[in-house]
Amino acid sequence: MKAYQIQTLDNGIRVIHQPVNNSKIIHCGFVLDIGSRDEKPHQVGIAHFWEHMAFKGTRKRKAFHILNRLDAVGGELNAYTTKEKIFFHASVLDQYVEKAFDLLVDITFESIFPEKQIEKERQVILEEMSMYYDSPEDAIQDQFDEVIFKDHPLGNNILGDQESLKKFKRSDFIDFLQENLDTSRIVFSIVGDLSENKLNRLINKYLKPIPAQKRSRTRVPFSEYKPQQLHVKREVTQAQCAIGTTAYPIHHPKRLPFFMLVNILGGPGMNTRLNMALREKYGFVYAIDAGYHPFSDTALFSIFFGTDSNQLNKSIRLVKKELKKLQDIRLGTLQLHVAKEQLMGQLAMAEENNMSFMLMLGRSLLDKDKIESLDELFDQIRNIEAGDLQEVANEIWPEERLSLLTYQS
């Protein structure tokens, strides 16, 4: 694989291209440094609502023409919103890449937010909210954000709430973009077999004409974490549980050791500490996962699982026991070696998914102003010592720092 190429355009947008040979598919998209945490109290849910409205009409296309443009040639157009980012992206056969560039620029920068479409999409999002609420394993993840971050914007549901959604008008979307859209905080990422000449032609035609926009937005930092315990009575056939706390932000030097530690505890492998303890040994759970989601100034560490109500308290004790083991017992030489090899293998396989890789490149360039190669990451992982893992376990996982949320009938 050839090295990636980065350009910074006069309007501030950065373009990163990772050439990939022997693939007929090109993945490309905008990553914007705007998310639900950038909403003011009266705007809760508008970032995600904007993501929906981007598909509902631009200065030159109606909703049908947007949705049909790439689908008609077997391509895909999609978007999603997180706490700190919005993604608009497409995947197409290489011969249709210009259609993708044209359409992505159109929906990202030329939306007109038709009032009739706002009313229609408002109902769609309310149905989306109901769908997630009716799924306890999804609902508990949203509510756990509130438990950890409380009244801070990071604690708000990305979808918003019914009260705020019902108030949004066309002017609210325009105001939100004027407050937050900064072209110097946007990356256009491409992964695929695209010649330099063709790429530059597309950049000159579609990306360079985008007007420069500069904003002096400052995110409200999160600092006041207080552990909480909340037990919610809900009609569920299986008790749901969330355990977690805050952790290291994106730029923290201990971020990678903690990421590795979380992978040992409850990553995607079947041999994780939590899976072995709760599923393989006792059969208490079908699935149990640990996650680490770093933000610019803090992070969320979380464990989610479902179990029979009669086994909930014992399952919670087993989870805390595994956390305590990693605090008290340093990994042996062989355990550390296996953990490193497993993490490096998972990272390498993740890079094989070109669409996810494209989005990761854009996100990494925004967050870190650089791209770490696999070799660089592997070197950092190899230099992690058992003492580093034990140190972060003791900093993040003391029982008094843990918050708990349960759903039970």
Question: Quick gist of this model?
Answer:
44% of the residues lie in helices and 18% in strands. It is an alpha+beta fold and 409 residues long.
Structural write-up:
By secondary structure, the protein is of the alpha+beta class. Helices cover 44% and strands 18% of the residues. The strands form two sheets. The chain has a six-stranded mixed β-sheet, with helices on both faces. A five-stranded mixed β-sheet has the order 7-11-8-10-9, with helices on both faces. β9 (288-294) and β10 form a beta hairpin. α11 packs across α15 and α12 (333-350) runs antiparallel to α14. The radius of gyration is 22 Å and the shape is globular. The chain starts with a strand and ends with a strand. The model has no long low-confidence stretch (mean pLDDT 96). Pfam families: Peptidase_M16 (PF00675), Peptidase_M16_C (PF05193). This is Peptidase M16.
